[in-house]
């Protein structure tokens, strides 16, 4: 028990340190500047701190184990049960996200007390509603995206390399380290054509009130279309994957 | 010593063969590592060019700091990849088999499985380091020597950190998060630690010697480090390494050989 407790504590310590590394970097950049890339210190630090909370909600998932379940043949245990594999992982993810959010709220609160960062707090209730919708789209998109990566296990035993590669690309284009609109125009346009910006960047821009109504609606629509596209792709891959599944390892 | 060199070559060849079993996987990992390097490089270029330098450092100097970080970080991972696999040895009790062999268990746990992908990654890093270094301007032989000396010192401190992680693994069987916490903290050295505000700057310079590891070598090359600070850095490195080895020896006395 002691071992698992320490494991858990170090996991949370790591989570906090990861956030502090980015926060301190931006805090340092604003040491003798009022504005960088059109962002004030308040807006940028809000962006970074909130990206941690939204990241916890959107990017926390248990679907990473799907590839291993397929490769080890453990998937067979689910196929013979009157249970939807997809819904099983939705239930697991909900539980996982709730636990992550519970801990990160406490940790972020402590960071606020210790660091006392200047933050933007919108008073317009509409912003909060739009934010919740944007986060919901991000949650669904990332769940489907991660699920799809897991399904690669039907065709290959090498599931960690594609996941690592996608993680590196996602880490950059999701906008967790910096707002994507500080990038040169071609790179920014590329980021907008990928689904990753809907994980963090889009909800954060909604929160900061930097999107007009048209841009916000367009973003939500595009995000919704991504969800449908990923859902359809996942269904196709699941059906085709089951055809080649041999329960190897069982 | 010769015996250990022979052993290291054997273990490394085996590790390389295992790592390259799946070429597709190796290629994807390589692309991922390269992209991560390029992405942060792009971020630094954007940051330095739009802010006209940070903490009085130019873009080229900023890139040189980043490349020095990558050199130390990658060399460390190249040699010490086995640390990431050590937990399994402890929890399964297979570490017993290491202990009864006529070789240092620390040697086996630390350098028993080099990573060929990191060896390949060193090629673009070294090339970029030389290229960016040549753009910085005149470098004296003394400054170059100090740079190499402090690079080695940084590597010694990184070795110390990995030994501490191994010791922690024996005492608690926890290693995965511990080694990643080390990597997260050292990632603050991707930029010169001078840019951070106090008291953080002092803490990550000497308290957790990220600054000594990652920033001081490049500062020495630019001629921005006094001889006394170089001496202090070497003392910090030596003491930290000594402390790590003591912790390892202490941890060995706590090994319970559970599950064996």
How many domains of chain A? Answer: 1
Give the helix/strand class of chain A.
Answer: mainly alpha
* SS field, number of helical segments of chain A: 10
N-to-C SSE string of chain A, H for helix and E for strand:
HEEHHHHHHHHH
Q: What is the total tally of β strands of chain A? A: 2
What is the percent of helical residues of chain A? over 70%
- State the shape of chain B: globular
Description of the structure:
- The complex is a heterodimer of chains A (250) and B (260).
- Chain A is mostly helical.
- Chain A has one domain (2-244).
- Chain A is built from 10 helices and 2 strands, in the order H-E-E-H-H-H-H-H-H-H-H-H.
- Chain A has helices at residues 2-29, 41-59, 66-72, 75-79, 85-115, 125-151, 160-173, 185-192, 201-208, 213-244; strands at 35-36, 39-40.
- Chain A has a two-stranded antiparallel sheet.
- Chain B has 260 residues and is mainly alpha-helical.
- Chain B contains 12 helices and no strands.
- Chain B has helices at 2-19, 23-51, 59-80, 86-92, 95-99, 105-111, 116-136, 141-172, 176-186, 200-207, 210-221, 227-253.
- In chain B, helix 2 (23-51) packs antiparallel against helix 3 (59-80), helix 3 packs across helix 11 and helix 11 runs antiparallel to helix 12.
- The longest helix of chain B has 32 residues, at 141-172.
- The radius of gyration of chain B is 19 Å and the shape is globular.
- Chain B starts with a helix and ends in a 7-residue tail after the last helix.
């Amino acid at each position: 028990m002691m071992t698992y407790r320490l494991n858990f504590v170090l996991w949370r310590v790591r989570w906090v340190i990861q956030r502090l590394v980015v926060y301190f970097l931006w805090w340092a950049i604003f040491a003798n500047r009022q504005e960088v890339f059109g962002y004030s210190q308040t807006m940028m630090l809000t962006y970074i701190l909130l990206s941690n909370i939204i990241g916890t909600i959107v990017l926390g998932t248990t679907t990473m184990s799907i590839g291993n379940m397929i490769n080890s043949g453990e998937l067979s245990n689910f196929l013979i049960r009157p249970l939807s594999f997809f819904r099983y992982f939705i239930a697991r993810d909900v539980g996982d996200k709730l636990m992550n959010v519970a801990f990160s709220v406490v940790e972020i609160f402590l960071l606020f007390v210790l660091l006392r960062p200047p933050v933007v707090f919108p008073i317009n209730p509409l912003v909060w509603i739009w934010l919740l919708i944007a986060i919901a789209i991000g949650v669904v998109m990332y769940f489907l995206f991660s699920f799809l990566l897991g399904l690669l296990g039907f065709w290959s035993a090498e599931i960690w390399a594609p996941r690592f590669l996608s993680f590196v690309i996602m880490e950059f284009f999701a906008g967790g380290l910096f707002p994507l609109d500080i990038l040169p125009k071609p790179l920014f346009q590329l980021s907008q054509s990928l689904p990753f910006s809907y994980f963090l960047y889009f909800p954060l821009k909604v929160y900061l009130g930097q999107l007009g109504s048209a841009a916000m609606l367009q973003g939500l629509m595009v995000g919704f279309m991504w969800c449908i596209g990923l859902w359809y792709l996942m269904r196709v891959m699941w059906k085709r994957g089951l055809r080649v599944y041999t329960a190897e390892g069982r | 010593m010769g015996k250990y060199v022979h052993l290291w070559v054997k273990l490394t060849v085996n590790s390389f063969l295992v790592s390259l079993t799946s070429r597709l996987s190796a290629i994807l990992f390589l692309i991922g590592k390269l992209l991560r390097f390029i992405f942060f490089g792009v971020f630094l270029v954007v940051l330095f060019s739009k802010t006209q330098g940070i903490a009085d450092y130019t873009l080229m100097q900023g890139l040189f700091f980043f490349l020095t970080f990558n050199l130390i970080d990658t060399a460390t991972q190249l040699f010490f990849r086995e640390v990431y696999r050590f937990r399994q040895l402890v929890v399964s009790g297979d570490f017993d088999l290491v202990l009864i062999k006529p070789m240092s268990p620390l040697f086996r746990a630390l350098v028993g499985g080099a990573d060929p992908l990191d060896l390949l990654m060193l090629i673009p890093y070294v090339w970029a380091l030389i290229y960016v270094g040549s753009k910085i301007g005149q470098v004296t032989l003394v400054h170059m020597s100090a740079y190499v000396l402090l690079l080695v010192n940084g590597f010694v401190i990184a070795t110390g950190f990995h030994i501490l992680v191994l010791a922690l693994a024996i005492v608690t069987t926890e290693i995965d998060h511990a080694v990643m916490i080390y990597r997260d903290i050292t990632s603050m050295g991707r930029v010169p630690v001078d840019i951070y505000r106090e008291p953080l700057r002092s803490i990550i310079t000497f308290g957790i010697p990220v600054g000594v590891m990652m920033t001081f070598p490049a500062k020495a090359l630019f001629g921005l480090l006094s001889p006394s600070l170089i001496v202090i850095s070497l003392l910090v490195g030596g003491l930290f390494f000594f402390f790590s080895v003591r912790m390892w020896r202490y941890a060995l006395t706590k090994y319970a050989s559970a599950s064996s």
